[in-house]
């Protein structure tokens, strides 16, 4: 399973891999989230826009976007579910996993946006 930090426009975003056990725990955590409130949407601004999760040998999804308190799960059939990430806890947990895997400058930008 790979995680892309959607951080830059016009330059390559940082990407890191998750070990299978971390990926399984993440998917289980996301599956337990409640539906997002009406009108909820991922971040669309310039700069940090969230984390995109793809891959995994047995993944039931094509992409998961974790962004601004919303988790968007896109399944293989094209359906989309929006879930509520209370306190951005899933997003912060992914940032913690990224800390040892991406450049410190990228982490500074990610943490700044998460804390704003």
UniProtKB/TrEMBL annotation:
Name this protein carries in UniProt: Uncharacterized protein
Species this chain originates from: Streptomyces endophyticus
